[in-house]
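Q: Given only this backbone (202 positions), what sequence would you predict?
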């Protein structure tokens, strides 16, 4: 198959969404937890989390344009300045996926999807208790992608909680042993299998 730009544009919306969302390969599957100033929690699945730097420890994720529909994650981050990112594991992947449905502002996805809130060390935003790898972030900045009005949300890691800590030989996390999962497209979840850990080329 070879599609040029005109043929891509001529795909049905459903075909184009699923193709373009999966063409980048398997992405990390995470739940982002937030809370507003009134204490109303929110939880949503994201596959766009990316590493932006280690010193300071910066993580980014992409948000669809605010204003089209309510963006509770975005609103809460802008309101409080804090949020959590939590790895998804196979035993609650289906529940995590359900957080992508549309919920009212006063309805917590934690409750609706039977996922447990966990507040730790006086950190404002809720973690996912079931997640074995999770971290809390402070909002740093947002960058508008002008071509489609999406936002790159940048945060600095302030807390790391590792309920399991199998390491690779270089000190990283063995995501296969941690049973973290990935997402391709909008709704296909994958387990990771590590091929090898190679020495850094010199």
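A: Predicted residues:
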């Amino acid at each position: 198959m070879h599609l040029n730009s005109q043929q891509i544009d001529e795909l049905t919306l459903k075909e184009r969404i699923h193709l373009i969302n999966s063409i980048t390969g398997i992405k990390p599957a995470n739940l982002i937890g937030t809370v507003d100033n009134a204490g109303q929690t929110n939880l949503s699945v994201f596959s766009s989390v990316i590493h932006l730097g280690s010193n300071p420890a910066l993580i980014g994720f992409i948000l669809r344009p605010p204003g089209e529909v309510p963006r509770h994650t975005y609103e809460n981050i802008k309101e409080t300045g804090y949020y959590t990112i939590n790895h998804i594991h196979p035993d609650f992947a289906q529940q995590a996926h359900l957080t992508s449905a549309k919920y009212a502002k006063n309805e917590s996805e934690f409750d609706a999807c039977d996922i447990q809130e966990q507040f730790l060390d006086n950190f404002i935003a809720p973690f996912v208790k079931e997640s074995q790898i999770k971290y809390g972030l402070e909002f740093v900045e947002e960058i508008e992608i002008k071509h489609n009005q999406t936002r790159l949300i940048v945060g600095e890691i302030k807390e790391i909680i590792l309920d399991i800590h199998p390491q690779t030989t270089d000190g990283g996390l063995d995501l296969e042993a941690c049973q973290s999962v990935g997402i391709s497209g909008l709704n296909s979840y994958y387990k990771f299998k590590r091929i090898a850990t190679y020495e850094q080329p010199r």
